[in-house]
Q: What sequence folds into this?
């Protein structure tokens, strides 16, 4: 894998954080999210998008770094988590009365496919060994 970009179709945001990050996730099930899944996320960033660049009702792209590339499952489901900067950096957010912090993006479970998350992977195919033939004479 040479590079990869994960894009999420924004729905709505109200955030007072610097960026949204992608990180690893190890979910109990890919069909349901449960409370225990919170313990299965990593704090190692795979890439981010600054909040000022996040736009609702369009795709928002995050280029994966080297750690993110190794998280791609080539034969199954790649699991990612999305987290705010405070989560990744393990810092306490500044509390302000009357403010909201949330971001919504469409998931693969949304009806139709026009707003599904998409992972675009650029890769170089492995070299194919040249066929070798042998002749044996007895």
A:
């Amino acid at each position: 894998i040479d590079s990869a970009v994960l894009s999420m179709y924004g729905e709505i945001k109200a955030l007072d954080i610097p960026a949204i990050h992608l990180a690893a996730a190890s979910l109990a099930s890919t069909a349901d999210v449960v409370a225990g899944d919170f313990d299965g996320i990593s704090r190692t960033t795979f890439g981010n998008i600054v909040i000022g660049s996040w736009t609702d009702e369009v795709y928002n792209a995050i280029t994966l770094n080297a750690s993110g590339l190794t998280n791609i499952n080539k034969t199954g489901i790649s699991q990612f988590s999305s987290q705010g900067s405070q989560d990744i950096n393990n810092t306490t957010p500044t509390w302000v009365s009357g403010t909201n912090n949330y971001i919504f993006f469409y998931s693969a479970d949304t009806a139709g496919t026009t707003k599904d998350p998409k992972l675009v992977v650029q890769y170089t195919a492995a070299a194919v060994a040249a066929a070798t033939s042998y002749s044996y004479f007895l």
